[in-house]
Amino acid sequence: MPRRTPLFDLHHREGAKFVEFAGWELPLHFGSILEEAKAVRSSCGMFDVSHMGRIGVQACKRVSVNVVASAQANSVAEKLDWLVTMDVRNMAIGQVRYGFLCNERGGIIDDLTVARLGESEFLLVVNASRREVDFAWMRKHLPADVEIVDRTFETAMIAVQGPDALEIVDGLVDSEEKPSDLKRFRIGEFPLLGIRCLVSRTGYTGEDGVEIVCPSDTAGRIWSALRSKGVRPCGLGARDILRLEAGMCLYGHDLDENTTPAEADLMRFVAMDKTFIGRDAIEEQLRNGVKRKRVGLRLFSRTTPREGAIVLGNGQPIGKVTSGVFSPHLNASIAMAYVETDWAKIGHQVQVLVRDKPQDAEIVSMPFLPLPSRKGGVER
Which CATH superfamily does the domain covering 291-364 fall into? Predict the structure, then answer.
């Protein structure tokens, strides 16, 4: 039986079509995938992302005096730093970073964000399909004086995305400080409708916006208030179009335990000047040469390639598609694929086998869609 988010009943009343995703029953769309994607690019849309895992990592309060002293000498940040590819130790309070949990082979166990809420308090947002795997991996590799708490089911999470998102969310906040004051990849606590919420200026669409974490029993009030402001509810279908246009990976498709950040062309989220699990394997791979790389493909026909489609170079197989959609904003079919490194150059002409028919395509840069400039840095 798939799980349901605290907003399921609201979605059902709005006529959502549901699908099972990562063990959850989630909206695929509320009437039109394309119109929902267009709303996010032109104005504002919102997504119920409560299925995403939310894991707290903090200093354990129930330990002996000796262990507490040890925790002070070796902070939670230093211990968490060893598990993830991003630099956690030097994060400021209120900062969010994107990166990876890797295995000893450098393969990606999960891609995630880490938010520093306090000196020794962090919130990790992980993929729904990997929540239990991530939790077990962290429990195995973190010492007993670090507490790991799964906060997924006591909270809900709503992503509000689009050019009008910040202005609309600001209107729900009754305080002098507003979410729009946050820089990109920053997080803070704000009273939304009098409800204490964590709000981060992050997202998975390429647009500006925020992600709101609130107590699960208050999610309906916040969702309904956003709806009353004209924010369009959006489902997984629109989310997939938007994230692919923005060149963002989906775990289990574009990333997995047999793929390294070097192969995924995501080394900008890996701090090689520190120690972490998988670092040595990644360093060896870089030294010996990466055999395949993730690239963007733009097809010259409207035919959409699906995961597993073979990519051809000079008529020979050189790789496989991992994600593909029709982009309504580019009026073209686009895809991500892993190809042999020699072919992973912008402008190379290739073909993609779709239903056994070769379709002409070109390797292009990502993001596929020019994204709006925004205060505070680059997209995750």
Answer: Aminomethyltransferase beta-barrel domains (2.40.30.110)
